[in-house]
Amino acid sequence: MNYHKKTYDFENLPNWLTFIRDDIKLTALGMSFARLPIGKGYTYLHRHEYQEEIYIVLNGKGVIYMDGKLVELSQGDVVRVNPEVYRALKADDKFELVCLIVGALPAEGYPKQRNNRALIDDGVPDWDRLPPWCEGNEKIIELNKRIRAQREGDKN
Question: Please, which residues bridge with residue 77 across strands?
Fold first, then answer.
C-alpha cells in the first residue's frame, strides 16, 4: 500500500497523548495528539537533542511553558519550539486543551533552492498528468504551463 489512513474522533480523543506513528506508518516525522483535561498538564519538562516541534491548538485553551516563559494558547495558535528549549503544556483551569504536536529532524541539504517557500523542495511535478477533477480544463492546462515556465525559469 502506498498510503495509510486512520480516522480520529477529535471530539473524543483519549486524554493525554495519542501517538500516531504506528497507526499511519510514519517514518520521517513524529506526530501525536495531546488532549489535556481541564486544569491538568505535563508533570515534567522535556526538550530534544535534534527535533524541532510545532504545537497546533485544535481546541480549547491553555499555556505552554518554554524556558521560564508562559505563552497562552487558544484554538488556531501554532507554536514552533527549538529542540533545546525545555517545554511543557497545561490546559486552562476552565477549558481542556487539544493539540496536534508535530516534530521532525533537520532536513540536511534542504531547501535545495534558496528562494523556495517549501523546506523540503524535492517535489517532482508531472505537468502533463492532471488530477481527475482538472482533466480537459483548458484554463488549468494554461495555468500549469505558466507555472512550469516560471519554475523552470527560476532554475536558470
Answer: none
Instruction: Please state, in angstroms and rounded to a whole number, the distance separating the CA atoms of residues 106 and 119.
Output: 10
Report residue 140 as a C-alpha cell. Answer: 488549468
Q: Are residues 98 and 136 in the same domain?
A: no
The answer to whether residues 59 and 123 belong to one domain is no
CB 74 within 8 A of CB 20: no
Domain containing residue 59: 10-104
pLDDT recorded at residue 154: 58
Q: Report the distance separating Cα 72 and Cα 116, nearest Å.
A: 32
Q: Can you tell me the distance from the alpha carbon of 53 to that of 49, in angstroms, rounded to the nearest whole number?
A: 11
Q: Per-residue pLDDT tens for 14-69?
A: 788 888 888 878 777 888 889 999 998 887 788 888 888 999 999 999 999 998 89
Whether 116 maps to a domain, the answer reads yes
- If asked whether residues 85 and 37 sit together in one domain, one would say yes
| pTM for this prediction | 0.75
